[in-house]
Specification:
By secondary structure, the protein is α/β, with parallel strands linked by helices. It has a single domain, classed as Alkaline Phosphatase, subunit A. 29% of the residues lie in helices and 15% in strands. The chain is built from 14 helices and 16 strands. It has an eight-stranded mixed sheet, sandwiched between helices. Strand 15 and strand 16 form a beta hairpin. Helix 4 packs parallel to helix 14, helix 11 packs across helix 12 and helix 12 packs parallel to helix 13. It starts with 8 loop residues before the first strand and ends in a 13-residue tail after the last strand.
Length: 422
């Protein structure tokens, strides 16, 4: 893939107040396919307790089963936690994958594994989901292809920084205007002033003569191309990030908290044409006071906002073309510790998949009576990634050329989980 000199604008020539996150990615490459697909990753950072959410063990001894009770769902035979009543009513909209297992009970390594579908190695930096989607699918010229609300979870790896996300830098807050640096221009530079400075591109062409031959890591530095200009001056982009256009009832339906407003922003971005959105919900590292933290805060918020996200996508006909993955980096220990908490446990976890070609309304996989290990072989993060990519319309066995001197398979060791995709 190459870019002409006229696609490059150096940030310094435009003023330091202009940036799309840390840098704008040059992901409108020639030859990209356009499948009409999009995807959402809801990342539950910290490692949610699987046995207190979607893989409950009501018949286990109390020190294992915890304090919550299961409730029935819209799908006969499937039960989930009592603190997820809205999601219980919508169990037909998603599938639960139980028995996902790996060996990295460390937040950083576990996140890297689950977010890429490849076991971390110091030799190869694998790309996160959104970076692959950004490379494979072209987006609207006046919108970023890949947005991470607040901060990126992982990086673009060997694909190069031009395929990293546009990060908003913070989460939207209920009742407050949400400003994304670069989209709103920070109030320091008008769109008209930006257009005037944009005319400097002919001079910058000369300064960046030979840009196409630069190393990919250098090409990913803070530089604007023609697409940056289109995004910054685009009413579509500014409107997509502007929650003030939403009806008050819709704001309240998603929840008067950061995750709720982030989920609402996620749907707006998908509606506008963004290809991939990552939204974070953190705080799941419940080493102590697990049940109060989950029951009073995390689970009600997840229940409200994720249900609203499913409903809005479905009502607007977008759930048919939008793959949704809800996951953390690992699960929690089967036995409750002395602080009424659960510790790191990577041998068993669960995830949700919805949208696009996912066969919903089912549970795939299982864990033993204490939710400690999968029954039979279980599934790996590689398998989860292969399934998610396939649901988006990307072959998990796609090969990319990387800077390690050999082609690299997107998901080398994973296979699609049987029965999940139609």
């Amino acid at each position: 893939m190459t870019f002409s000199r006229r696609q490059i604008l150096k940030v310094g020539a435009l003023g330091g107040s202009l940036s799309l996150g840390n840098f704008l990615r040059l992901n409108a490459a020639e030859g990209q396919s356009d499948s009409g697909r999009s995807a959402i990753l809801v990342f539950l950072g910290g490692g949610p307790s699987h046995q207190d959410t979607f893989d409950m063990k009501p018949d286990a001894p109390s020190e294992y089963r915890g304090q919550f009770s299961p409730i029935s769902t819209s799908v006969p035979g499937i039960q989930i936690c009592e603190h997820l009543p809205k999601l219980a009513q919508r169990a037909h909209q998603y599938s639960i994958v139980r028995g996902i297992s790996h060996s990295l009970a460390d937040h950083g390594l576990g996140t890297r594994y689950v977010m890429t579908g490849n076991l971390p190695t110091p030799v190869v930096q694998y790309p996160m989901y959104g970076s692959v989607v950004s490379k494979e699918f072209s987006g609207r010229p006046d919108l970023p292809s890949f947005v991470s609300i607040d901060r990126p979870v992982e990086g673009p790896g060997y694909l190069g920084s031009e395929y990293g996300p546009m990060s908003t830098g913070e989460k939207p807050r209920y009742g407050q205007p949400f400003r994304v640096r670069g989209i709103t221009l920070d109030g320091n530079l008008s769109v008209d002033q930006f257009r005037e400075r944009h005319q400097l591109r002919s001079d910058i062409d000369t300064a960046f003569d030979g840009y196409e031959d630069l190393d990919p890591s250098v090409r990913g530095l803070d530089r604007f191309n023609e697409r940056a200009y289109k995004i910054i001056s685009s009413p579509r982009a500014r409107q997509a990030f502007d929650l003030t256009g939403e009806d008050q009832r819709e704001l309240d339906r998603f929840g008067a908290h950061e995750f709720g407003q982030s989920a609402l922003l996620t749907t707006r971005l998908i509606e506008a044409g963004v290809r991939f959105v990552t939204v974070l919900m953190e705080g799941w590292d419940t080493h102590q006071d697990n049940f109060n933290t989950l029951g009073r805060e995390l689970l009600p918020r997840l229940d409200q906002s994720l249900s609203a996200l499913f409903d809005r996508l479905d009502s607007r006909g977008l759930l048919e073309t939008t793959s949704v993955l809800v996951t953390g980096e690992f699960g929690r220990t089967p036995k409750v510790n002395g602080n009424a908490g659960r510790d790191h446990w990577s041998r068993a976890m669960c995830s949700l998949l919805a949208g696009a070609s996912v066969q919903t309304g089912q549970v795939v996989g299982a864990t033993d009576k204490h939710a400690a290990r999968p029954v039979d072989a279980g599934y790996s993060p590689d398998d989860l990634a292969a399934t998610f990519f396939q649901s988006i319309g990307i072959d998990p066995k796609t090969e990319y050329q990387a800077d390690v001197g050999r082609p690299i398979t997107l998901v080398r060791n994973g296979n699609c989980i049987p029965g999940l995709l139609g």
